[in-house]
Amino acid sequence: MSVRSSYGSHASLVFSIACTFSLAWLSACASTVDTAEGETKSATLADAPFVGTWTSELDGATAIIEPTGIFSIDVPARGEKPARSAVGRWTYNGEMAVFTNLSNTATCADVPGSYKPEVVRDVLRFELVRDECAPRQEHMAWPWKRAK
């Protein structure tokens, strides 16, 4: 085998691996959910209207909702309550968002919460669908303002 054909095979293999990785990464940014009617709807996470940084009107907590499907919430200390934070994953089907704290998060680990988000101007509100996590329910019940 010549050096040239060996290089061509290697380059082809690298290109194939790179393409496979790119497709896997792009598909990870999409969320697919079956609807009650049996249809499947897909929404790209980056297109979700609530991606960005938000400040809670409840207590000044900061939520960062990333287009990668990761979210974080940092709650400042209030009176006797110490500061706390949560990190998790989220999905969105174009109508409903599901937030699930990661298993190493102290509060509500692996407990999903479903909400219907609505953004009007720079204010985000969540309508509760189902959530067994009381602290998350409390924060989601209040409006969030887009951070500038």
**Largest beta-sheet characterization:** 8 strands, antiparallel, barrel
Helix content: 10-25%
User: Which descriptor suits the 3D outline?
Assistant: globular
Number of helices: 2
CATH architecture of one domain: Beta Barrel
In what range is the share of β-strand residues? 35-45%
Would you give the CATH topology of one domain? Answer: Lipocalin
User: Helix-strand pattern, N to C?
Assistant: HEEEEEEEEEHE
CATH superfamily of one domain, called what?
A: Uncharacterised protein PF14869 family, DUF4488
Quick check: average pLDDT? 78
User: Strand order, biggest sheet?
Assistant: 3-4-5-6-7-8-9-10
**CATH class assignment of one domain:** Mainly Beta
Task: Please describe what this structure looks like.
The protein has a domain at about 45-145: Beta Barrel (Lipocalin), CATH 2.40.128. It has 2 helices and 10 strands, in the order αβββββββββαβ. The chain has helices spanning about 5-30, 135-140, and strands spanning about 30-35, 40-45, 50-55, 60-65, 70-75, 85-90, 95-100, 110-120, 125-130, 145. The strands form 2 sheets. The protein has an 8-stranded antiparallel β-barrel with strand order 3-4-5-6-7-8-9-10. The N and C termini lie far apart (about 60 Å). The relative contact order is 0.14.
